[in-house]
Amino acid sequence: MKADETIVNGVRIGGADTKAGEDLRTIELPSGARAEVRKGYGRDLMRAQRAAANGDASAVVFALIAEVTRVDGHKIVYEDVLEMDLADVMALQAEVIDENFDRPPQRASQASSNPDSQSEH
Known about the structure:
This protein is α+β, with helices and mostly antiparallel strands. It contains 4 helices and 6 strands. The strands form 2 sheets. The chain has a 4-stranded antiparallel sheet. Strands 1-2 form a two-stranded antiparallel ribbon. Strand 5 (69-71) and strand 6 form a beta hairpin. The protein is globular, with a radius of gyration of 21 Å. The protein starts with a strand and ends in a 21-residue tail after the last helix.
């Protein structure tokens, strides 16, 4: 067991939280640091919501970034995100939101009038 890893009732808490073959992207942050961002799960969102007890949406996003990101090989926490350079936070926010919150496809706009109902002049 690694130093930053704890097992509670057979469930790993902290430490390396990626599964073999899991979607893991590595990006270089504007500061030059390397970040690994993994695919998020419901448990990550639940932990983020608990960390942001006041329910502020921005705080939840910052906490979610901390849940799914490692920077230069180290797990980060919510307070680390608060202390990061803004450019790094924005890059991580874009990476986490784009990956975990896919937007539904846009519906094709329909013509405002039906060509069959147009009268001839």
